Amino acid sequence: MRTIAVLGATGSIGASALDVIARHPDRLRADVLVAGSNVEALLALCRAHRPRHAAVADASGYAALRDGLLDAGLDTEPHAGADAICELAAGDACDTVVAAIVGAAGLPSTLAAARAGKRLLLANKESLVLAGELLMRAARDGGATIVPIDSEHNAIFQCLPDAAARAGLARITLTASGGPFRGWGRDALGPVTPEQAVAHPKWSMGPKISVDSATLMNKGLEVIEAHHLFGVERARIDVLVHPQSLVHSLVAFRDGSTLAQLGLPDMRTALAVGFGWPERLDSGVSVLDLLAEGGRLEFEAPDLQAFPCLGLAFDALEAGGSAPAVLNAANEVAVSAFLQRRVGFLAIPRLVEAALSRCTGAAADSLDALHHADAAARRHVEREIAQMSPSR
Ligand code: NAD
Ligand code: MG
């Protein structure tokens, strides 16, 4: 029996993970459920999945969680706070951790699971962007197995099953849907609303990653993520827009072969790979019928003029040091401000670029240094936003 902690259980990835888990009661059990602040949603999940532990990051939610569990007649143990979440991720209650908290807030628990040698289903890409080297080292030292739960990286993972395949790797191509504004010029993007930006044409996801997909920052974060996961430098990572979102990524080998993984755009496939690997489990996702999906696979180059965030991420990866941490932090603050209608869509790349231009290129060899860079970038972007007139 695989015992699983779902961190970010109330989110989009959390829901997909719990759906796959519930299909395999003989093999998979959700023993730990963790949410940010939505106690009602967490309680509903506890009633459905009866975990041994439930935790809410926001400590003010503890009493409501405890009382709600009692009222429901559940013997689920309540917990609250970031430290409790790290202890659960590292402790004996689980052998497998789905890291699906959004943003840099996911780093401590992801690191704790890596150090403790868990099977780590890693959706929280921001933790790799912020602290990729430290996280990969922690996983190696702790004996953790990382299975990437980003459709592109999961595709690459499937195409690189062993050390021999990795040794023959020549290039990686990450595919991108292009987001809701594919084909739009930069000028047309100024007035777009949060509602338009989160309306992704192919994937149903949380609000932050949906905006990242609309700016193409998501693909930029994924380039950095691929660099750390697969040890491939920037010059060997390409990005190709593929509007059908059926080819999830491609791997080229030195002998001229290219392998790709295809499937419907549904994260349950990647999660089933994570739970079962190297076995294949039912995920609830139908097998791909290419004719029913329109019979066409198209590819085009990304438009770096209209979507400068992708180029900024390339630059941050090239610069190294704390630059990816600054990129990620600035982007989190800018996206949050956009979702709150405090700034316009085009302010996102502007704010990220301004934060990166102040980046000193300081080494990022400790968690302290990274936290410092992250916090400084957040403060800087908040200050910039405070000085801007609304919707600039
Ligand atoms: P979401 O917004 O739907 O869910 C986020 C979850 O994180 C919620 O359960 C929330 O309660 C929890 N959370 C937020 N702050 C927290 C905190 N401080 N402590 C503990 N929990 C906290 O987001 P999502 O779309 O499920 O994405 C989750 C992660 O997976 C992101 O890093 C995203 O980039 C990555 N990812 C998502 C998808 C997708 O299809 N949704 C695909 C690839 C990667
Ligand atoms: Mg992805």
Brief write-up:
This protein has helices at 12-22, 39-49, 62-71, 82-90, 107-115, 125-142, 151-159, 163-167, 186-189, 194-198, 207-215, 217-230, 268-276, 308-319, 323-339, 347-357, 367-387; strands at residues 2-7, 28-35, 53-56, 77-80, 96-99, 119-122, 145-148, 169-176, 237-241, 247-253, 258-262. It is an alpha/beta fold and 392 residues long.
Walk me through the structure.
The strands form two sheets. Strands 4-3-2-1-5-6-7 form a seven-stranded parallel beta sheet, with helices on both faces. A four-stranded mixed beta sheet has the order 9-8-10-11. It is built from 17 helices and eleven strands. With 392 residues, the protein is α/β, with parallel strands linked by helices. The protein has three domains: 2-148, NAD(P)-binding Rossmann-like Domain (Rossmann fold, 3-Layer(aba) Sandwich); 151-266 and 287-305, no CATH class; 320-392, Rna Polymerase Sigma Factor, Chain: A (Orthogonal Bundle). Helices cover 47% and strands 15% of the residues. Magnesium ion binds at residues 150-152, 222.
